[in-house]
TrEMBL record:
Pfam family, one: PARP
Lineage: Eukaryota, Fungi, Dikarya, Ascomycota, Pezizomycotina
Domain of life where this protein originates: Eukaryota
Entry-linked InterPro entries: Poly(ADP-ribose)pol_cat_dom
Protein's name in the database: PARP catalytic domain-containing protein
Stored Gene3D superfamilies: 3.90.228.10
SUPFAM superfamilies for this protein: ADP-ribosylation
PARP catalytic domain ranges (all copies): 131-236
Amino acid sequence: MTALSTTVLSNPNNSNAARLQALVTRKSDTDSLFEITDPEWIKWYTNHFERTWEHQNKQAEITTIYGVHRDKRAALVEQMGKRNQAGVTAYTIKDHASVKNKIYYHGTQRACKIGEKTKTLCTKDECHLCHILRESFRLEHANPRGMFGPGIYSTPNSSKADSYAKNHRIHSHQHAIIVCTVVKGERERLFQADSTRTAPTPGFDSVEGVVRNLGGALNYSETVVYREDAIIPRAVIIYTRKGWAPGC
């Protein structure tokens, strides 16, 4: 499949904003997801997922796409902004809606069947997926041994995120990855690992790990932010892995 790094997708928001906005905001239950049934949005998410699936040794097929309610996303951004260091201007939901901020993916551990048998988020400590959907990304849970330090990692490649999507103590043929919006701002491109850093170099807002064919150390790109209001969950894609053993 073709990478999306230089591809611009047509966002349904641009053509029929009022109708699609109503679709996103019609519910207020912030502890549940809503199934995306609008054909334009399904096509948009599917195209993005497939075009950014770069691993040739594995395949996936989407079964269902769920959205995170807009009022929930707005509340998460506001909540995370209050956790910033003193003097740091908080991002808003409008910042996350900017055309400059692309869609990214995050794979994590799922310990329930959210997206299959239920749309309601669970409260299990070991279900990192539902924890992120409920409370967003927290630096306190960041991996201290991450390649670029303890930040919040995401990737423009759906297939790379799939490598981190794990079903924990549940038997299922389906898997889940989170679709995120990331306020990247000025990106600092890193060509080598630096697990000691806790922030971008002054003057930059995020870190981008450069891929090998451009002189970097990664096979597939990833972006790291070090502030919690710079990344929020937008949707969840449920999919099957073709040719893979169930529950792996």
